[in-house]
């Protein structure tokens, strides 16, 4: 069977399952989103231009792209960013998590569970819920535009800091709505936890960032449930991308191993103790505890991460003090650099080679959807017996749901990779 | 009056401009109530299909399949609207138009023959007739809502294409170029963003493409006289709107 174009994913893809009547069926996630070659376009550009260019890779998680690139380049240039600026970047990033998760959970994924084709039809059955979900999404966007100037492709971040920091009053003006939603999000958690979900318990390699100070978002070291602990600089030595003939997005695997999973399920499983206490208590209320093995639980984890982001953002806004130095001067230096952060969908890894004139010589960007692609195919393969014996509608819905568990952002996943063949086969 | 049937289509792009429709949040449900959804793959798995009264097209055209698809959508649509800089002026991916694809592909894909793309990423109007353009990287949400309000009544709105400077002056900003020597495309870029970057103390980098009656040669000489080198000007113009006629002409002449 072939699903045809997948609806309610970000970007363009389709799924094909070939059942030969014996053995394991062949599953292919075809990403026909055209390549855009960003890594090549970055060559020769000045380091200072990178955050603005890479944000255009994804309209849904531009902040993740900006922050991962800043982590890499500021590391190389030895920039120490003011603590209040770091706080601002985090609030901006929490805004992106809230906006992106709200979009995914309520507008892209939830309609499946209530048997609606979209959130508009779902709104007829659940008007209050959809209205609150949109309010949540708007709050995420408001946090982003208060700090970034606008929510899609924000313009305020730069190497060394931020062009202009918002006033304390500007951020405080968002608190009443933020506090209101901290309360009403409970109804949304209840709604999502009441949805009847398929289940798929499976062992897998979970990978995410870990930050000793917080539930990792704007940086950290890479950890896994198999005891991995390494710096982002070791990423390409540990994981590899490979190309398949049927997709414009590169796949990822652990070197010498199989597929792995990044994103909310991995973060929740490995960093649970750092989740905000309110989110942890809410998790207990809905019976979720780490480690999680079922990708169909990811919709619920996303709502819990919204609870977390709301709590943390409220705390950061209250503690914010306008920075004395919104940005610090720096001198570009030549070298190789690495940066990572936790995009809403999982680890977003960047590396750059910068020359003595401060220009990009080489870029490598590995987005979460590329990393999860092999996993999505694995999941559909495991569900295949169930899918193949269902009627056409159920089969399509189940396979789309299996893909949507990963909230794949297909725009991000094409146009990537900058490993040469020998290296990727080493 | 029957509700106009809307199609939203994605080509080579980041999803940001069609996300701007979903970002209308409070207005979204009211807005979608005024139209019939013909096709909006990112938002809905249901579709009435062609023909469309209004087709919103995001992205540039960069593969042979995309050429076929945009030609088909043009035939099926009364009004075709290019949504955002990729559709109106190529987007960042069109920077490859200045290098040979053969040089670009191996940098991204180990086996480039497998990923099929055209040599160039093109604005929609290079392939089919476009009835209306919503500019910007991303588009302005305010302009998008204004467009919808007009389109459901069968009209086209008018947006100013005067320079960002006008918005900047109204915002009460001190001129970055004159006062600080900061390279800024404000004088040659169409308004629409509300002078976002200059209001944050940084130079405009041209998200809305060239403004009316732009004289880039004149502005470039003025900038160079104020210690901005030509390479910097070129890099600023080699952004999301690089394939707009005026920006492209300057880059091709001046390198």
How would you characterize this protein structure?
The complex is a heterodimer of chains A (426) and B (255). By secondary structure, chain A is an alpha+beta fold. In chain A, 46% of the residues lie in helices and 14% in strands. In chain A, the strands form five sheets. A three-stranded antiparallel beta sheet of chain A has the order 5-6-7, covered by helices on one side. A three-stranded antiparallel beta sheet of chain A has the order 10-11-12. In chain A, strand 6 and strand 7 form a beta hairpin. In chain A, helix 4 runs antiparallel to helix 6 and helix 8 runs antiparallel to helix 12. The radius of gyration of chain A is 21 Å and the shape is globular. The two termini of chain A are 35 Å apart. The C terminus of chain A is likely disordered. Chain B is α/β, with parallel strands linked by helices. In chain B, helix 3 links the parallel strand 3 and strand 4. Chains A and B meet through helix 1, helix 4, helix 5 and helix 6 of A and helix 1, helix 2 and helix 9 of B.
